[in-house]
Amino acid sequence: RPPPFIFTxxxxxxxxxxxxxxxxxxxxxxxxxxxxxxxxxxxxxxGLRVSEVCRIQFKDVDQDRHLLVIQQTKFAKNRLVPFxxxxxxxxxxxxxxRQSNSINNHAPSDPIFSFTxxxxxxxxxxxxxxxxxxxxxxxxxQPGSSSPRVHSLRHSFAVGRLLQWYHEGINPASRLLHxxxxxxHVSPESTAVYLTITGDLxxxxxxxxxxxxxxxxxxxxx
Length: 222
Hints:
mainly alpha, hpI Integrase, Chain A, three-stranded antiparallel sheet, disordered C terminus
């Protein structure tokens, strides 16, 4: 089975930007661009599952503590997902935009991402929009890897976090439990499988090994 597609930061930014430019379609698809922009930001920036993003309700966003309450996840559990100031800002702006474009006030249990009758957007619709944007951007997989899918954004988040730890000189294996909890996995073993080894990761690992080997040789020669 080929490894999953991993988005570069440039590709992810292009996807999010193009999503933000989606036009409104009639009276029922207002705020289409801002909606899909924040949907893809949450998928790539927090590594959420598509189903989790689609089900987010107004009450699930704790803007004071910068937390998302992800309810009834894949394993029927709730979890708290912290987000940084940039995601907090775009979430706040989108919620304000939704409220200003609505005739009635939204109930706490209403879905944030909805176009008609307070029904949450569907995973299928998100996937359709995603494939259309990928086609327009002409994003192609690397030889031997899978084609980009919506779930690839979650993979990319996990791999990006692993690479960041490498850059910070942290052993990723020591942080798998943290990442496993963040992603909503049952065990770190599931997370270890999730983290696809990319070319950048191998290069970074090689640098760490060379540094280790050099220090070992230096120590042996003294």
